[in-house]
């Protein structure tokens, strides 16, 4: 009976193991589903809509084949369509049957002026016509980009409101061999249990088979008796065997039996080990409840608010590009190169620095643009242009932080650094929205703040000149303001140095006025705003005697910028200040706080 059960166990084990292996091999379906996108040749760009990418659930894998370098980038669909507005491209969407379809989109027509005689094209116009098309590589608009040679494979996980752009270099036709694949959930949760259970049943069958053999051997008795030996003729077996040359067998029956058992047991263990080695994680059922994340504070996006201009990762990449270009321009003292990534008050200060370094050998270079660690990113929530981003980067060496504003004028322009200042270590920043929510820009004449942004520069300039006697002094927090005392001390030092030359020959006057660059304001969570402004501090040295002459013996910077070392009419020197304020909302009991500031010499010239 033991043999019967052993055979049944072997048969059952074979069926179970075979079924488990079959689930992982011949019965297992494809792991991915792939859709090929038909694209006509010729267009320099292919835009794959987010609806196509989300035809099936799960992550997407984009594959493109072509000759040479292949470029792909993704971003918000509206942004990409704006970037492609002035060129022809192929747009891949879904038709009524949810199948990919391609259509050619022509560039948006531009308004043509009234008909006028067309002059013959000049050599410059011919050269411009041969200029290669705009390259998509390195655009600040992309959330991320990929570039590979001949074959591009890009793993994605994009929502429906994002799209993918595929191109070569913007001039050559885009690849036409494009496909998208999604993973298919074809797990075999019972393959593992079947294989393991089959191995266990096989082991039981082996054990029953061994017991059956053992039982048969123990039950086997002698079949017949040997002949009787006469008592008078004892036989000496040792002598008889020696005389007859009988050789004793090497092993006993017991040892032979043990050898067979080991031969049977070893294959069973080996098979079990091989079966266990072939089982992967998706070959087992998943029991238990799915882990639920702990509740967190809800982030409520105001109804109708636009999407944030950039993500945090995108802002880090943009800031790194700005810092590299600024460093290259500082080294080469190239204002044209600096203008590709700097603007406004930052660029004006850089241009003056390059002039001074060209004239004064030991004049210090500008401070480098900090990039890491990026502590705060507050993008403007705006779907149109221009767009701006506020960022704060810590400086571990000086234990200060740098606050800055970056702005993108249109879809094709790079972000440029327009405002930059230093934050003190004790500066208390207001509560700001999360980077993935963003904040709206506050209009310059907004009545919802205790002071409109376009009046902050004039008010603070008045405080610099008049101190506590200014009508605006009560609206600004003086306890956290370290700039006003330093400006007053610097003015007094300069005045003392000037008076050493004689009180009856000249005079030195100071004034502060709003700068030439527009303010920028972005909302905070307390209905207030962070406001960046530009202020000019002007210093005039003029003679009080018609026979007197203003000389510059100890002012190499003024001499280098003005192009003269003395003047009978005097000199005027302008310093530019970049300042960031926190302006509370209407009804708040708080005062306007100075968050950060930076000051550089801007210009010097002879008074006409």
Please render the helix and strand layout as text.
Blueprint: H1 2-24, E1 32-38, E2 45-48, H2 50-53, E3 60-76, H3 77-83, E4 89-94, E5 100-105, H4 123-129, E6 144-156, E7 162-167, E8 177-183, H5 191-219, H6 237-244, H7 253-277, H8 312-332, H9 335-338, H10 344-359, E9 374-379, E10 387-395, E11 400-408, E12 416-423, H11 453-466, H12 483-499, E13 506-514, E14 520-523, E15 529-543, E16 550-551, H13 556-562, E17 566-567, E18 571-583, E19 593-606
Parallel strand pairs: 2-4
Antiparallel strand pairs: 1-8, 2-7, 3-6, 3-7, 3-8, 4-5, 9-10, 10-11, 11-12, 12-19, 13-15, 14-15, 15-18, 16-17, 18-19
Helix pairs in contact: 1-5, 5-7
Oligomer: single chain
Number of helices: 13
**Beta strands, count:** 19
Give Rg in angstroms: 42 Å
Question: Which word captures the global form?
Answer: elongated
CATH class of the largest domain: Alpha Beta
**Distance between the amino and carboxyl termini:** 123 Å
Keywords: Membrane, Transmembrane, Transmembrane helix
Region (Disordered): 95-134
Domain DUF8094: 307-605
Protein name: DUF8094 domain-containing protein
